[in-house]
Design goal:
The termini are far apart. With about 575 residues, this protein is mostly beta strands. Helix content is about 0%, strand content about 45%. It has two helices and 36 strands.
Amino acid sequence: MRSTRRPRAGSALSKRSATVAGFVAALVLVVGAGSFQTPAGASLPVLSVTVPPAATVLTCPGPLELPAEVGGGGDAEFSPVPVAPVTRLTTVGNEKADRVDVRRLDGTSLLPTDPDTADDLEPETDSSPDPVDPPNGDHTGDPSVDPALAPGSGAPGSAAPGSSSPAVGVELTAPAVVRVAPRTGGAPADGTAWLAAATTMVMVTAGDLRGLAGASCQPAGVDQWLVGGATDDGSTAHLVLVNPGTTPARVVWTVWGAGGPVDLTSDQVLVAPKATEVVNLGGPAGPQKALVTHVVASGGQVAAWVQDCAITGFTAAGTDFVVASAPPATRQSVPGLVVEAESADTAGLVGPTLRLLAPGDTDTTAHLQLYGADGPVDLPGVESVALSAGTVLDVPLGGLPADHYTAVVDADVPVVAAATVTRVGLPGQLDPVPRTERALVASTPGGTGTTAVPPDVTATLVVGAVTEGTAEGTGEGTVEIISPTGKVLATHHLSVDSGTTGAWPVANLFGAASDIGAIRVVATSGATLVWAVLVETTQDDGTLATILTPTGPSGAPVAVPLRDDPAIAQG
């Protein structure tokens, strides 16, 4: 059944069971200390060994880096951070895995309870929840017809109470590491995946850092592209490097700006095991109005992000995390862009900005498309933009109708991309201009993934369908609404026509919004589903927002066949 929330968009959401894809693992068998040869005409029986996936380890941003002058005394009314930032962590795991393990870098636990008391964290949900209305208001039917929609029913995907202990609203004082491993001695052999997702959200309601900064926790890596940030007047960009491993990591960074590659005064640091290093990019890079930072680690893996903060004069202009974008490619997709209706006071301020870089040695032309509810939207003057090799370009996308969008960038050479969405609030008593909020979103490959949803916010699922070339089609999949303990509370069929973007308030997908811990999208066929979750909270001086991109699918056990090798093994 298709939703007609926006009939012109062709986006749909209906109920259907989910199929989750898993990873494929390989097993190598080594035989030594002797030799053997299979007798002629004989063969060994084919055996099958179930290989469990490795644990998922995610690194989560911690609190914001505060301005250097904070803590030096003075009048709190004029402090750049007059209110304490609130930093919270939300994690989700399910019955396919052991208890979620959340620790500080030093190894001490952050979980509020022991595994034996995990039942205390089970959300109070009715075993027969009220029917859920989809975005178009059509009745979806009694969930008792579909056992997957009834928490505690024992249907596939629902967890026994207390099988996974979540961390919901745990306050962070430093970066954290979330580890989820397959259930000891009980890893599923049915090919289904287990779930691991976590999100850090920082809220600052006043001062220079006013804003909502959010990021999905991600695995550490050795090569990351951070598309965003600035160090010119009124802007700060802190590069945060976290080494969650047990070996030192040598980290080298390269920076590009609006004038081309930046000649840095320093470009590397050694990050000790279980340690964090913070680099204020304004030092080595100098004033730059638009940054792209490439981080490469050797010897160990690191998690990297940029804390981007801006002020206009003395008025807050937004704070957010710049997280890793998809690596350079000839096509990039940026999900979750939202444009509000303009007014006389906000004209020219509410359109998104797309940041692009061709990091190689070849100039190119970037061809831009924006997919809205009606399909591709005309972009007069910016359908094609020239990109000089090594030069960062910000492309303003103002004047768009109010809607949710997916940006698609095509070029002849690999490029990187990300976007910034602006919200305009009200001026404070001493502000000459309105306060603004900026949400940064990275390009993503799309497909199956999970996003942990923080509590006490308004969340909107935004999904675009992207196909190669001029091909038409429909992106098909399922959306699962998951409790903090991993229960599948509701399953909806997802259908988005190629070249369009659909948006659904998460509260409409499951009535008890306070029980929602995560959203999982499982892509099944057709156009690539490129998606993100818009998170908002409203206060007196305007709306604070951040955009969360998904964490890729967690692992599933794989049955690997073992066959005899007729060759002689020498030991």
